[in-house]
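worker-3 :: picked Putative pterin-4-alpha-carbinolamine dehydratase
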Amino acid sequence: MITHERLVQEVSSRARLAGSDDAGRVVKVTLASLTHQLAPELRRRLRQAVPAAERDATVATGPPAGGGATGLLGEVSRYLGTPPERARYLTQAVLSTVCDADPEVGRELRDGLPEEFGELFTAPEPYPERMHAATDAPAPLTPAELERELRRRPRWNGDVHRLTRTVALPADRLPPLLGGVRRAAEELGHRAEHRVTGDGVTFVLHTRSVGGVTPLDLRLADRIDEAVAAVSSGGRPGR
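worker-3 :: tokens ->
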């Protein structure tokens, strides 16, 4: 079993937190929020996998809270007073550390929750140096970073302020596409603006909290590309 000191140290490193006090609070809030989503047996397994200092956070009564991954991230965001995109980053730092320390429990937790929770158990993407000091949210990409990322996403256009992609689709394909994009945005704790055009839809992405394009927008752009591919082939995103 991972020790309290090691758990806090690892989360502090993965999430680029200032010190052990901050990391300890993040760990307890995240574990408590996860516990609220779990069935009783999984709550017991989680309690067995964490150090004694964190076990109080894994005690809950009543049925699972529901609300999916969005509900979990909303609770973390609310109790830590941090933007949703940062709450997701912190949640991944905690849950991936727990899973790495006890892979068997990690598999049980992933298997016992809906698929949308899966990514929360993986380590956050390595963008620690791009965190905005004032808001604790991802900092806008630099022009050079954005240029590099757009080369990997040829269907997207834009600048450091916002990204856009226009998709031409028959009218009957728009509802499943917009539904898939909405679900993807909720899972990421983000949002995508859109404008319906005469022959399709235009998506606009930016992170309001920092006034520019961040790595979170790139992740949502990739999810939109996946949703477009799904409806273009006749399927429904996330189904």
